[in-house]
Predict the structure of General transcription and DNA repair factor IIH.
Amino acid sequence: MADSDAEYDGEGPDEDDVMEVSDGGRRAMASRPKERAQARWEATASSNWELQEAADGSIEGILGGLEEAGKRKRLLKDTTPLQRGIIRHTLLVLDLSSAMLEKDLRPTRHLLTINYTIMFVREYFEQNPISQLGIFGMREGLAIRISDMSGNPNDHIAALKQLRSTEPKGNPSLQNALDMARAALYHTPSHGTREVVIVLGALLSSDPGDIHDTIKACIRDRIRVRIIGLAAQMHICAEICRKTNGGDENYYNVAVDEVDYRQQLMDITTPPVLRSTDTEAQKHNQAALLMMGFPSRIVEEKPTLCACHGNLTRGGYLCSRCKAKVCNLPATCPTCDLTLILSTHLARSYHHLFPLRNWVEVSWTRARQEGSIQCFGCLTPFPRIPNPQEAVNGTEHDVASARTKRAEGASESSRYECETCGQHFCIDCDVFCHEVVHNCPGCQSNAHLPGNQNGHDAG
Ligand SMILES: [Zn+2]
Ligand SMILES: [Zn+2]
Ligand SMILES: [Zn+2]
Ligand SMILES: [Zn+2]
């Protein structure tokens, strides 16, 4: 991290208080032209035009394949078990400047951002039940507080809904936002991650001082910054993200459309990988133990005051250390600061550490070998396997070759195989199992039936 500081050479338009994209072009704003190939969003912008008709001139197979390939591309994550920070402290910073009034994302950038952010908050706590989130905004050159750091999604959603009626105004200030985020993350414990996610619609940042000092301070405080741009790439954003992520350039992206924007926000709900160089804290903190309480729900005959809000409630959870009553879990005990969670919350974080392995595409040959006729998960029939004689005669061959030409990434036989249990699944089950249940139905049913290892054609 220190060396990335040293390599700063003061180039570019970012030395003034107001940084503006002078060029205006999307392509030109390379963070560093010499070390940069094509940005991810540039690749997706062009790929949609590369539609090719099938052999018989129909476009249906290709479109179906494209859709499947799209779903699949989203799915194919790196499934290597890595050390991840499952206790996260994330600050979401929304741009509330006048640039958010633009209507290039429908209905407006502002309203779409609020809708997506609400979805993001739900998903974030679904995926990271023992993490904390806070939301800030950037408006009229200032950073404003929308909701405080907390583990309760409803607080954030209520605050976001109120934001709908406000009008975006003025310029954003990245420096003010980062400084405020630093202050808010300063007291967070060292075992958790410190992340700042900025959604930036404007092409400028109106700062009171030198933002490079702030970047250095962020690195010192081991804050990782991620930025989603809504307009075009900006040099200073690329620099902030690169420097605070140890030189990794993948943390700054520009959303090309609504779908891409949503996807990028949702990607952030996966806990970040811990880098080996990450924290000094980690060195003397390796496998540090964290104290947690697992209270059970109690029901009371007479209402009593809760320690978190001071409301009269019947029942709740008693802190396992000091017996203070809290309404909801997960929470930090307001009296003794113990982290209180349910064991199911911990279990939900488990799949990030040991993800379900990706399923592989099944070739016609493999499908013939297995003879799979329907999806093991939902019993949807698969397309018929062309048999080898017909293929030679050319009747089924065309169908098969048309299928083979389906978009890159989609399986030619529309089947996906779990390599552990050997069952075949359709694309929808593939998506559902990897994104929602995080388990393989084939492996799970084998687990309950010892000795039934070869039941491939069952179903
Ligand atoms: Zn309460
Ligand atoms: Zn307590
Ligand atoms: Zn299925
Ligand atoms: Zn399986």
Remarks:
- The chain has four domains: 2-32, 81-281, 292-351, 360-446.
- The radius of gyration is 26 Å.
- Residues 375, 377-378, 380, 425-426, 428-429 surround zinc ion (ligand 3) (CB under 6 Å).
- Residues 179 and 331 are 27 Å apart (CA to CA).
